[in-house]
Each structure stands twice: as structure tokens, then as C-alpha cells.
Amino acid sequence: MYDHLTRASLSRCLADAFLAGAWNENRLVGRAGQALAPRRGWIGPLVREVLAVYHRPPADRPRELTRFIALQLEQMPPSDLDPPRVRRWFVAELAMGRRRWPVPDLASAGALAGWLEVAPGHLDWLADARGLERTTATERLRNYRYSWLPRAAGPPRLIERPKARLKAIQRRLLHEILDWIPAHESAHGFTRGRSVRSHAAAHTGRYVVVGLDLKDFFASVVAGRVFGIFRTAGYPEPVAHVLTALTTNAVPVEEWASVPRPRDPGLVGAHHRLGRRLATPHLPQGAPTSPALANLVAFALDRRLAALARATGVTYTRYADDLTFSGPASLLRGADRFRSSVADIAREEGFRVNERKSTLMTRAGRQRVCGVVVNQRLNVARTEYDELKAILHNAARSGPSSQNRHAVADFRAHLLGRIAWVESLHPGRGERLRARFEVIDWDR
């Protein structure tokens, strides 16, 4: 009927007009007539098509309505008439969709800015509306700071730390929105009431324990999947778009260019894949919101892997990117097929299993889950216990400063934390370590 750009402009104008008031044929036709001039004969048929599909106003889906209108315009018979001009832009009356959880009611980007107590222009800056983060070479124009941690068995790990203002906003989004949305029961990392301890406890006393690792866990979560989480929470498309922009990031070209290529030829492919993921909006490792969002995006993965585990008589839990399965001897006999099934499911859900970090541990040897020994009961490794015991012994004999080799700022709190961890796994060992701690003279 009209060219692509004309259809796009008319569709946006009409979608806003349709959503700006009462939802019936007369009112929609009337507002369309006010928005466009001169009025065309296709307005009435278009309105009837819209009402046939949308019995109620899609007030949380203005972009979907725009696309639907554009499709209807494209399918209408050719017209020799010039397209109408946009005479008036209405302001769409947006609303929350179905709220499954008690998240804040934020029906527009302006309402979001007010709730976050920032000016709309500042919100656009923090959401990187102009895409400067990826292209600018000026550090002060970026919302993140970057550092790289080398890894022996893979490309370096990128830490993307949001600057103070964005970090504060992300923390608010975490606690007032994301904390209300439950993760799958198999997820134990970054989830209230669950921990490394609960993750490991599910696998004690098993004949065999299988551990698998997901490659580039946070970088694998693309912006589109984050957008889906916020839409599921009930936020209208424009608000979900801004929330997604506030919680995802694209790494600057210069930052990735500064990372040396791996010398191991077997890691070149992984290095290239990571670079492609970081070049597009993804969950930044270092943002407060990323762990919770990763858990929510992985809900379908957890559901499918839990179903696979149940079907084979196996227990499954996940702590961040660590997948752990445990079960009887049959799991050992079918381990290769089982791991292949897990890898297939992970790939279908947008993740990749790191074959290099796959482990299979029988009860004949030490079985560890996230560093916790799980053979018969939860415990710390003997070497870790002996090391801490020696530090406490030497600190009591020669003074605590003699054992603070890494210049820990609060060495006393550091030791108490390590003792508390041992105590949570093995109270008897923890009690013995605490007794050694009590005799240390902290004034020396």
C-alpha cells in the first residue's frame, strides 16, 4: 500500500492514538481521524481488524500493536492516493500487564524515572540510549569499569563493574523487583534461603557425583531474554526495554581488542565466541542484578534438567554455572549418554557445557561439590582444615601479624569467617578451630 518507512510512521501514530482512550470502534476511528489528515477509507476496516484481534486494549504492548497495524497496512490493496500526513501525536495510556508477583506498578518510562528518583534524561544516559558504551573511547562517558582475570583453561574472565549511580539503581531493581520473582527450586546460587551448603547437601552419600560447567554463563544471557523476564513480571514493553538496558551491557571495542588471543589453539574458538557475546548486550558479570536475572533466565534449563534427573533416578542442583548430578551406580554406567543429554538441553536453552571442566566422582575417591566434600556428610577438605589449623596455631604462638601474609585488612574477621564456614559443615571441627582462635593474643 505505502512504502516501509511510511507504514512504520503511520503504524506508530495510529497505535498511540488507539491506546489514548476508550476502546471501541467509534472512538478509535475518531482518534485516527484526528491523528491523520486527510482521513482515508481504510481507517474503518483497519479498526475492525484491530478490534477483532484485541478485544481489550493491549496497553502493555504498544510495540506489538504497532507491528500488527503495520502488517495490516502492508496487506491492504494498493492505493493511488498519497499517504495521509501525521497531524497529531496522541500519548498512549499504558498500563501494567498481569502482575504475578508484587512488583512496583510502573506503567511508563516516566513513572520508572520518578520511582528511581532520576530525571528522564539521566535515565536515558544510564540506560545508554545512544549506545555510547560500546563505541566511546572516553572512560568518563562509560557506565562501567572493566578488568580481566586470566584463566588457565579458557579465555580471560571479564569483570564489568557498574559505576556508583548505576550500581545503586541496579541494587534497587534487585531488591524491589527481582527478589519477588522466584527462581527454580534447583537453583541454589544467589537465592534467598539457599547456598553452597544446601547445593552440596543434596549430593551427600551418593555412589557417583557428576559435575558440569556452563561456558560464559553471564555473557550467554542476551538482552532479549532479560526483556522477557521483565515482561513476564508485567511491565509494559517501553518500561521493560529501559529495565533491560539498565541491567545489560555491551563491552567497548577497545576493551576487547586489548585482550591477548590465547596461545592454546584449542581455546581460539572459545575466545572468538566470547568476544561475539560481549559485543552484544548481555548480563555483565559484576552487576548486582546479573546473578538474579541469570537464575530467572535459566528457569527453563533448570526445569528440563530436573525432569531429566527425575526420569533417571538422579538428583540435580545448580549453583550459578555449576551443574551437579548425583545418583546410583546406573548413573556411572550411563554417564556419557547422560552428559550428552545435558549438553543438548543446555544448548537448546541458549547455554553451552564446558567439556573441559566435566567431572565424574565415585565414592571410592573424594567427591567435592563447589569445594565441599560430600562423600558421607558435608565436610571441608582435610588439606583446607589442616592449613587453617596451622595458621591459628602459629598465630597463637608468634602473633597474628606473622600469619597475615596477604595483608588482609581485618585479619581477625577473616579468620572468624573461615572458622564459621568450617563450623557450618562440621561443627566438631569448627569447635576445635574456635578453641585455637580464642587463645590468640590480638595485641601482639
Please specify the SSE layout and strand pairing:
Layout: H1 4-18, H2 25-35, E1 36-37, H3 43-53, H4 62-75, E2 85-86, H5 109-116, H6 120-126, H7 132-135, E3 144-149, E4 157-162, H8 164-176, H9 196-201, E5 208-213, H10 223-232, H11 237-247, H12 253-257, H13 268-279, H14 290-297, H15 299-311, E6 315-319, E7 322-327, H16 329-333, H17 335-348, E8 359-362, E9 368-369, E10 372-373, H18 382-398, H19 411-425, H20 427-438
Helix pairs in contact: 1-2, 1-4, 2-3, 10-11, 18-20, 19-20
What does this structure look like?
The chain is α+β, with helices and mostly antiparallel strands and 444 residues long. The protein is 48% helix and 9% strand. The chain has a four-stranded antiparallel sheet. The radius of gyration is 28 Å and the shape is elongated. The termini are far apart. The model has no long low-confidence stretch (mean pLDDT 94).
Task: Write a brief structural summary.
The protein is an alpha+beta fold.
Helical coverage, percent range: 40-55%
Mean pLDDT: 94
Strand content: 5-15%
Tally of separate helices: 20
By helix and strand content, what is the structural category? alpha+beta
Beta-strand segment tally: 10
- Residue ranges: pLDDT <50 for 5 or more in a row? none
Would you list the SSEs in sequence order as H and E? HHEHHEHHHEEHHEHHHHHHEEHHEEEHHH
Strand order of the largest sheet: 6-7-5-8
Terminal CA distance: 87 Å
General shape: elongated
Radius of gyration (Å): 28 Å
What composes the largest sheet? 4 strands, antiparallel
